[in-house]
């Protein structure tokens, strides 16, 4: 095993990464035989940390060129394979041993790993997923190219046009695009400056146009992003580009951000005609169609996305497309159609895909309350949602309270207390139910959103007025006799701001 590990060299470029570097280097233990780090001017403890892991550190000034910096490390590497990571990335513990097996294959030239870009502060907040070439066979001809978003594939194929690139299931967790990290490193400004330099040097480069479009999106410049993606789309041989599916997806997204829903739907449909198995585009068709009131078309697209499931590994996708996100969207569409059976089915489906998900629970509770069916909520939750332990039951009760349905929470806990025979669990659930009866909501999750104390101000600056509006609309809804009038007011209540935990 020790001999096998010598085959893989880890090459990195870093600057002031004392916060992230230990996690990255811990994750490669037992996989790489040597660590080569190019430091471009750290003033913190980065170099000391790297050396404590036995890394060879190359001090180098920053020349505004990622490829040049990476190549300095590659040139010093002695392994048969080069693995390259950033400091804010970590190899997945469960899948990383596969790299040792792939390193044995003499017929492979490069490996594509699955990058999971974590968006929120924890793993439940969602991520984007896409394959990226991150390990390649060491060769003097294999060198990075590109000032930013540097690529190694061009030089590999130039040396060997029949080089075999293998798509793996090995996961890299990337934390660098979390909002706080981006702000700390000023990544947006750095990326934009480098891309502008790259475009000045090569204005017809479609890859640079695509990447600057992505940065425009991150900078909330949707109109500029749209122009960049459309320019990239007009390039010769566009459909054969590895990122063509993303150009189409992001063109649609840019149009969505501009409120041009029909154009956004049309672009997504054009994309689906070229990439029919790309689930994300069908999800976008559903979302855009629903936004223009075309609910039948929206539902058909959502059903197709759910039938397809998560996009194949060769695509850049978002966690939940074709699974829990699409089911949640389907629930929102059913809400607009006032289809109660569909609403329940869709939100329960979303929860089956991802039991820890909060938005479907909040939307289900809010719908039942707005529809005047709060009395049925406890039975529905007990019958349709399986809670494996007391913590899950209390979480569910907390969602009910936070959604303005405290009576349902009490009934649910009493129901569960009667159902379970284990004395300690029964007594604990009964105790929580009694606390709610006495007006004590502090022992439940989301207690701050119960509407029972001033903590709810965390929810919205207008929490007080929202509560008054809810009360007024509920009374008006009850007074209406025609179903269409009741449903119209119900729709307004469902559209009002609320805490969904998304």
UniProtKB/TrEMBL annotation:
Keyword Transferase: yes
Record SUPFAM superfamilies: Nucleotide-diphospho-sugar transferases, TPR-like
A GO MF term: transferase activity
Keyword annotations of the record: Transferase
Domain Glycosyltransferase 2-like: start-end pairs: 9-142
Name of the molecule in the record: Glycosyltransferase involved in cell wall bisynthesis
């Amino acid at each position: 095993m020790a001999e096998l590990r010598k085959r893989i060299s880890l090459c990195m470029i870093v600057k002031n990464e004392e916060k992230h570097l230990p996690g990255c280097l811990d994750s490669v233990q037992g996989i790489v035989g040597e660590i080569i780090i190019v430091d471009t001017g750290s003033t913190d403890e980065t170099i000391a940390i790297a050396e404590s892991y036995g890394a060879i550190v190359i001090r180098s000034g920053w020349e505004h060129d990622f490829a040049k910096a990476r190549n300095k490390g590659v040139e010093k590497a002695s392994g048969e394979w080069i693995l390259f990571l950033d400091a804010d990335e970590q190899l997945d513990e469960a899948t990383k041993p596969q790299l040792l097996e792939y390193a044995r294959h003499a017929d492979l030239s490069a490996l594509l790993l699955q990058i999971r870009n974590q968006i929120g502060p924890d793993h439940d907040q969602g991520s984007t997923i896409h394959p990226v070439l991150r390990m390649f066979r060491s060769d003097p001809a294999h060198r990075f190219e590109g000032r930013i978003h540097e690529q190694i594939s061009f030089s590999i194929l130039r040396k060997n046009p029949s080089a075999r690139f293998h798509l793996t299931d090995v996961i890299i967790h990337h934390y660098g695009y979390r909002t706080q990290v981006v702000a700390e490193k000023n990544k947006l400004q750095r990326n934009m400056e480098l891309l502008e330099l790259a475009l000045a040097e090569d204005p017809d480069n479609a890859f640079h146009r695509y990447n600057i479009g992505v940065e425009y999106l991150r900078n909330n410049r949707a109109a500029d992003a749209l122009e960049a993606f459309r320019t990239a789309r007009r390039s010769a041989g566009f459909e054969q580009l590895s990122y063509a599916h993303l150009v189409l997806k992001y063109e649609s997204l840019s149009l969505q951000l501009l409120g041009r829903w029909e154009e956004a739907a049309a672009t997504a449909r054009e994309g689906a005609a070229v990439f029919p198995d790309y689930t994300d585009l069908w999800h976008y068709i559903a979302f855009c169609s629903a936004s223009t009131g075309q609910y039948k078309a929206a539902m058909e697209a959502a059903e197709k996305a759910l039938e397809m499931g998560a996009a194949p590994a060769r695509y850049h996708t978002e966690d939940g497309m074709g699974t829990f996100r699409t089911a949640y969207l389907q629930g929102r569409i059913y809400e607009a159609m006032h289809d109660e059976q569909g609403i329940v089915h869709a939100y329960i489906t979303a929860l089956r895909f991802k039991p820890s998900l909060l938005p479907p629970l909040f939307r289900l509770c809010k719908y039942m309350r707005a529809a005047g069916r709060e009395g049925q909520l406890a039975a529905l939750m007990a019958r349709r949602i399986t809670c494996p332990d007391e913590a899950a039951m209390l979480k569910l009760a907390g969602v009910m309270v936070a959604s303005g349905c405290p009576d349902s929470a009490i009934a649910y806990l009493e129901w569960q207390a009667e159902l379970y025979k284990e004395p300690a669990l029964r007594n604990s659930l009964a105790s929580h139910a009694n606390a709610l009866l006495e007006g004590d909501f502090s022992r439940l999750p989301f207690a701050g959103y119960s509407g029972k104390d001033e903590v709810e101000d965390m929810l919205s600056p207008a929490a007080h007025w929202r509560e008054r509006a809810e009360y007024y609309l509920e009374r008006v809804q009850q007074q209406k006799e025609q179903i269409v009038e009741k449903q119209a007011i119900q729709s307004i209540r469902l559209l009002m701001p609320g805490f969904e935990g998304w």
